[in-house]
Structure of ABC transporter ATP-binding protein:
Amino acid sequence: MTALLELQGLTRRFGGLTAVDKVSFSLNEGEIVGLIGSNGAGKTTLVNLVTGHLQPTAGRIVFAGHDVTGKAPYHLARLGLVRTFQVVQPFMQLTALDNVAAVALFAGGAADMAAARQVAAAALERLGIGELAHRLPPHITLAQRKRLELAKALAAKPKLLFLDEVNAGLNSAEIDGVLTMIRAIAAEGVTIVIIEHLMKVVRGLCRRLVVLHQGALLADGPTDDVARDPAVIQAYLGTRGAAMLETRPS
Ligand SMILES: Nc1ncnc2c1ncn2[C@@H]1O[C@H](COP(=O)(O)OP(=O)(O)OP(=O)(O)O)[C@@H](O)[C@H]1O
């Protein structure tokens, strides 16, 4: 099977700091993969590189068989490589509908604004926030804004979607709602990479985990195996935490 995405030795340095260090892995169509790692591990930088928001210092990104290294975000979005942002930043002066329509127009291939608004209305309905279409973002709750962010991602017609901490700041019921939406998006054949700190979310969604530690790939494999990997536990909790886990009575 040809990989949908292939990263080859992807590297990004900021001055003396190597934020992403020779990372190589591939994603197959239809996977839901968790990208995890402690704070500062390089997750967001990796997503920024793959989606064109940062230029790599070295390495190659191959998407659907094409070398897309260094391409601009709008170019990649049109190919179907789409992301959400950790801090959601809608256009505050545009209604929810027009926030989504703007994406449909510029990234989703909609022919004109009328067509873009149709796509946007369908995406809002799909995410269960159809009634918010004419509301401005300042009058929308955080949980609804997260759904708005997912609606924008859908309007770009993604093939591969990176979700950057879409559950941050949500309560348990709101998280369950977002998880249902993510499963529904995946069921339509969209490949998903989810950056997430909550193990409940990762375990509930992902069969495969990719772990970064200090910029480098630490582990890549089935979720249960990776979650039990002592090196992963140590990277998350530090030596003392890992030792405590090892000595805990079973
Ligand atoms: N624009 C930048 N300039 C300088 N250093 C940066 C820049 N962006 C990220 N870094 C550094 O690169 C490293 C990786 O950061 P990154 O945000 O990718 O980690 P992360 O795994 O997403 O962390 P978190 O879980 O806290 O969001 C960190 O040490 C960070 O301080």
The chain has two domains: 29-54+71-80+158-250, 88-156.
